[in-house]
Every structure is written in structure tokens, then in C-alpha cells.
């Protein structure tokens, strides 16, 4: 089986990256992580990737005068690994439209909310403030408008009485670690694909009953 080549972009500790690496250890998984790249030389994710025997690279955004020049170098380095998919996993840089459009549907991201709700930062605090009873995470295609690309897959978790931001964030993060490898596998195999701006291909026969909470 030919496995899709995946590059992962990170800025911090890399827990979602680690979940992807763990999934790809299974030879039957349809993707392999060929490179991990960061804009921060001190990102903890780089050490995790290196210990897993995965190539790493740093393109330090502080070394470039503007976003366009940084993105141009990042694009050059990423393309050197010839990935079929590029996964953003806690990559804390706003990418230029040119970078995003150059990768198209090959560029995907995970966001800690059920999009289109709670785009941007502080998603868990905002969910608690809004009083929602279900929260979660979304894997989506990256588009120039932040957190607005076509949804590939989502996972929902209950918001419990007494939750604070940290407790809710931990529950969502556990869901992220399950969702991202699942979504990447579907995307890498073409089981889900982009068609006229929407993600299609889900098997309705496999759809579970609704999650109701409380």
C-alpha cells in the first residue's frame, strides 16, 4: 500500500503531532509522517519528532522581515519533503493567502471548537461563557479566511457542570488526539474529498445516533 506523505507544522509542545506520529506507527495506517517543521527553534514538538526518527526543520519567523518572506521560505522547505498533505498542529502563525492557495486542499488544520462556532482564540472560555452544552474540535481544510474552511470531521464532548476552562480544554484535547488521526486517514485515502467547496464522501450507513447531553 502506498502511504500518503505528511508534513506537520508546529509551534509548541506538539501533542496533536504526537497523536499523528503514534497512529502512523501502524503499517496499515494510510499516511506516514515524513517531516515536522516549526517556526520556533525551542518547540518541544521537535524533540518528540526527532526521537521518533522523523526529519525536522526550523524556519524561525523572527529571522524574516515580514510574513511574505517567512512564508516563502517555509513553503520552499516544506516542498523539499514532497508531502501529499500538510497538517497544521498548533502552528501559531497566520499564513499568507499565497501560501494557503499554493497548497489548496492539501493543507488541513485542527481547531479546538465545533466550527463555525468559536473561531479564533480562547475557544474554551468562550464556550463556557456562552453556556453551550456540547463543545469539541474540528478538522478542516485551510482557507485564507481564518477557521472558515470546509469541515472534514468533528468530535463533540459534553460541557459538564462545574467545568472550568482547564477541565474543558483537557476533555477537548483528548478528543483532538482521536479526531486528527481519523480525519487524516480519511483525507489521505480520498474517502473524504473536496467537491465544489464542500467535503463529501461520508458513508451515511455508518452514521451514529445523535449525541444528546445532558
TrEMBL record:
Q: Report keywords, A-Z.
A: Purine biosynthesis, Transferase
Which species is listed as the source?
Methylopila jiangsuensis
Residues engaged in binding N(1)-(5-phospho-beta-D-ribosyl)glycinamide: 14-16
Query: Which SUPFAM superfamilies has this protein been placed in?
Result: Formyltransferase
**Family statement:** Belongs to the GART family.
Q: Which CDD domains match?
A: FMT_core_GART
Q: Specify the protein name.
A: Phosphoribosylglycinamide formyltransferase
Q: Name one GO cellular component term.
A: cytosol
Question: Which sites bind (6R)-10-formyltetrahydrofolate?
Answer: 67, 92-95, 109
Instruction: Identify which residues the record assigns to the active site.
Output: 111 (proton donor)
Molecular-function annotations in GO = phosphoribosylglycinamide formyltransferase activity
Summarize the protein's role: Catalyzes the transfer of a formyl group from 10-formyltetrahydrofolate to 5-phospho-ribosyl-glycinamide (GAR), producing 5-phospho-ribosyl-N-formylglycinamide (FGAR) and tetrahydrofolate.
Under InterPro entries, the record lists: Formyl_transf_N (IPR002376), Formyl_transf_N_sf (IPR036477), GART (IPR004607)
Residues carrying the site annotation Raises pKa of active site His: 147
Pathway, per Swiss-Prot/TrEMBL?
A: Purine metabolism; IMP biosynthesis via de novo pathway; N(2)-formyl-N(1)-(5-phospho-D-ribosyl)glycinamide from N(1)-(5-phospho-D-ribosyl)glycinamide (10-formyl THF route): step 1/1
Catalytic activity entry: N(1)-(5-phospho-beta-D-ribosyl)glycinamide + (6R)-10-formyltetrahydrofolate = N(2)-formyl-N(1)-(5-phospho-beta-D-ribosyl)glycinamide + (6S)-5,6,7,8-tetrahydrofolate + H(+)
Q: Domain Formyl transferase N-terminal: where?
A: 5-184
Q: Which GO terms describe its biological process?
A: 'de novo' IMP biosynthetic process
Q: Which domain of life is it from?
A: Bacteria
- A Pfam family (short name) is Formyl_trans_N
UniProt EC number: 2.1.2.2
Amino acid at each position: 500500500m502506498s502511504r500518503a506523505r505528511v508534513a506537520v507544522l508546529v509551534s509548541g509542545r506538539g501533542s496533536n503531532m504526537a497523536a499523528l506520529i503514534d497512529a502512523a506507527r501502524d503499517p496499515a495506517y494510510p499516511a506516514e509522517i515524513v517531516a515536522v517543521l516549526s517556526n520556533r527553534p525551542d518547540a518541544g514538538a521537535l524533540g518528540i519528532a526527532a526521537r521518533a526518527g522523523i526529519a525536522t526543520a526550523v524556519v524561525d519567523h523572527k529571522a524574516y522581515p515580514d510574513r511574505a518572506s517567512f512564508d516563502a521560505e517555509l513553503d520552499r522547505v516544506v516542498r523539499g519533503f514532497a508531502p501529499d498533505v500538510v497538517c497544521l498542529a498548533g502552528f501559531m502563525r497566520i499564513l499568507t493567502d499565497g501560501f494557503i492557495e499554493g497548497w489548496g486542499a492539501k493543507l488541513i488544520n485542527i481547531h479546538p471548537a465545533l466550527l463555525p462556532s468559536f473561531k479564533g482564540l480562547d475557544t474554551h472560555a468562550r464556550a463556557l461563557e456562552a453556556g453551550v452544552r456540547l463543545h469539541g474540535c474540528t478538522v478542516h481544510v485551510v482557507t485564507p479566511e481564518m477557521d472558515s474552511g470546509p469541515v472534514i470531521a468533528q468530535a463533540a464532548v459534553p460541557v459538564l457542570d462545574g467545568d472550568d476552562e482547564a477541565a474543558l480544554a483537557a476533555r477537548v484535547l483528548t478528543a483532538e488526539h482521536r479526531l486528527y488521526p481519523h480525519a487524516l486517514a480519511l483525507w489521505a485515502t480520498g474517502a473524504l474529498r473536496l467537491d465544489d467547496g464542500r467535503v463529501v464522501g461520508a458513508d451515511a450507513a455508518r452514521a451514529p445516533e445523535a449525541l444528546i447531553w445532558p
